[in-house]
């Protein structure tokens, strides 16, 4: 899943693009081999204030109208607002909804996704982007994620959502050590939900660049290390800024384990 941010304030400057350059970047990611391209028009980095709905749509809408004429792959929309989902559906038809709040930030979200029959990415987070880093009191962060998705599974079923992907939420309402505790326990999450695909978003995040004392611009090689570890633990999807590098990571993972029978997870 390639990342395209239609925002001026996403944490990694290399992911930001204006509406005029978004379509070429999206098409380039598909050409590089992305299965899905994820469009975000509302930054959700820790501490970020949330823009009004109309500002989010003004960033996203023109790109979707251009994209509707050039559709060449699966599009994901990174939003927690049901109204954005409805407007996107009216513009381009079916797509993948990627919601950092798993329906918690908009009470209409799950009903809307279920009614439209859309696939859904549900992420673990406490609070909002502005408050989440003050909500990191866990006895066992991995078990907390498992419990969260057991509850979400019931909500999804009630809302008629049949196809959903689990995102454990690296970097969201978790301290730096808790991110690595969760990575170590990721196989527990995978085993707890054997029918669900698991999406990992660690690309150039602070859990990597702060740990190493580098910048997001310098964090791509270390990102590949963490992505490889996530694949070893059972991750299905990688949400990335660097499509070609992630594909190479996945290819080497497959080559190593396919050539070593019994070594895979």
Can you describe this structure?
This protein is of the alpha/beta class and 265 residues long. α9 packs parallel to α10. The C terminus is likely disordered. The protein is globular and about 40 Å long. It has 10 helices and 8 strands. The strands form 2 sheets. The chain has a 6-stranded parallel beta sheet with strand order 1-2-3-4-5-6, with helices on one face. A two-stranded parallel sheet has the order 7-8.
Number of helices: 10
**Residues in helices, as a percent range:** 40-55%
Strand portion, in percent? 5-15%
Oligomer: single chain
Biggest sheet details: 6 strands, parallel
Shape: globular
How many E strands?
A: 8
Strands in their spatial order, largest beta sheet: 1-2-3-4-5-6
Written as H for each helix and E for each strand, in order along the chain, the element string is EHEHEHEHEHEHHEHHEH
The average pLDDT score comes to 93
Taking the alpha carbons of the first and last residues, their distance comes to 22 Å
Keywords:
two-stranded parallel sheet, disordered C terminus, 10 helices, six-stranded parallel beta sheet, single chain, 265 residues, alpha/beta
Compact overview of the structure:
This protein is 45% helix and 11% strand.
Draw up the topology in text:
Blueprint: E1 2-5, H1 19-32, E2 36-40, H2 53-67, E3 74-78, H3 82-92, E4 96-99, H4 109-116, E5 120-123, H5 141-159, E6 164-167, H6 176-184, H7 186-192, E7 199-200, H8 206-212, H9 220-232, E8 237-238, H10 243-258
């Amino acid at each position: 899943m390639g990342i395209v941010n239609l925002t001026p304030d996403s944490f990694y400057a290399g992911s930001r693009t204006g509406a005029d350059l978004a379509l070429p970047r999206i098409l380039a990611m598909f050409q590089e081999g992305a299965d899905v391209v994820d469009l975000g028009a509302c930054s959700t980095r820790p501490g970020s204030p949330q823009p009004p709905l109309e500002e989010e749509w003004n960033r996203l809408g023109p790109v979707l109208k251009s994209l509707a004429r050039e559709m060449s792959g699966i599009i994901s929309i990174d939003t927690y607002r049901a109204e954005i989902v409805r407007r996107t559906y009216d513009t381009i038809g079916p797509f993948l909804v990627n919601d950092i709040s798993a329906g918690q930030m908009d009470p209409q979200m799950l009903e809307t996704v279920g009614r439209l029959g859309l696939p859904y990415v549900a992420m673990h987070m406490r609070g909002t982007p502005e408050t989440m880093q003050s909500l990191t009191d866990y006895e066992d962060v991995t078990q907390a994620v498992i419990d969260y998705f057991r509850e979400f599974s019931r909500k999804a079923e009630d809302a008629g959502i049949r196809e959903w992907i689990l995102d454990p939420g690296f970097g969201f309402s978790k301290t730096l050590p808790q991110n690595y505790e969760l990575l170590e326990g990721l196989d527990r999450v995978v085993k707890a939900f054997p029918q669900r695909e698991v999406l990992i978003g660690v690309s150039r995040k602070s859990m990597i660049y702060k740990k190493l004392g580098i910048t997001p611009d310098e964090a791509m090689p270390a990102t590949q290390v963490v992505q490889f570890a996530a694949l070893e633990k059972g991750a299905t999807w990688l949400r990335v800024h660097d499509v070609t590098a992630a594909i190479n990571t996945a290819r080497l993972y497959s080559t190593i384990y396919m050539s070593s029978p019994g070594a895979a997870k």
